[in-house]
Amino acid sequence: MSELAGRVALVTGGARGIGAAAAKALADKGAKVLVTDIIDGTETAAKIGGAYFRHDVTVEAEWVAAVAEAKRVFGGLDILVNNAGIFAIAPIVAMSLEDFRRMQQINVEGVFLGMKHAIPAIAERAQKWDGGGAIVNLSSVAGINGSALVSAYCASKGAVRLMTKAVALEVAPMKIRVNSVHPGIIDTTMGSQLVEDFAATGAIGGANETRTQLAARHPLGHFGRDVDVANMIAFLASDAAAFSTGGEYLVDGGLTAG
Question: Which of 52, 63, 74, 153 is catalytic?
């Protein structure tokens, strides 16, 4: 498929999990992909014919460098996927201010910095494409509904949800679309860690019982796959979503429908 032929994408947190699946989905549609992460993504990038760049999303200078690398290696930038993020479980009274701030720094400031520095580069080429340039920000069902023990995460993902809408209004005249994606629990390394962390609280039960009950909260009866989220990201990055901006797109097995 060549829906994204000629386009260049930058995917943060792209070495594994949803980020790696998104990078592959974009490459499968013809895009050249710069995989960025603080862990080594060389193998992931090589598998899709892309490139890897070490990148801490909380450091502004590294965002400048990452965008410059996309231009240097592939000639420009058309698509940004702000996927990098962290998750933690803790009662609010037990969470340190340092841990709360770290969550916001990665999950919120990382998205802010990404959009700030990618938008000028994307705008340079947006008129070339029917659907213009595209930014996809990874939020969560926790950015829509609250959940006990994850107040810091909910705060960060709620911020991503509304920041997406605000920036979408700002950059629409530049022919850049900005949307957020809201996964439920996805069967990745982070998803498995989530189950283990919830099990450790004893709020639901042991690891097996916790996994079963968390899966059952999704009306479709199971956790999602990384490719489920990746396919939504690739759709929003493509001209098939040319009239979609400022939206929030659920990939949650019906979790938020009730």
Answer: 153
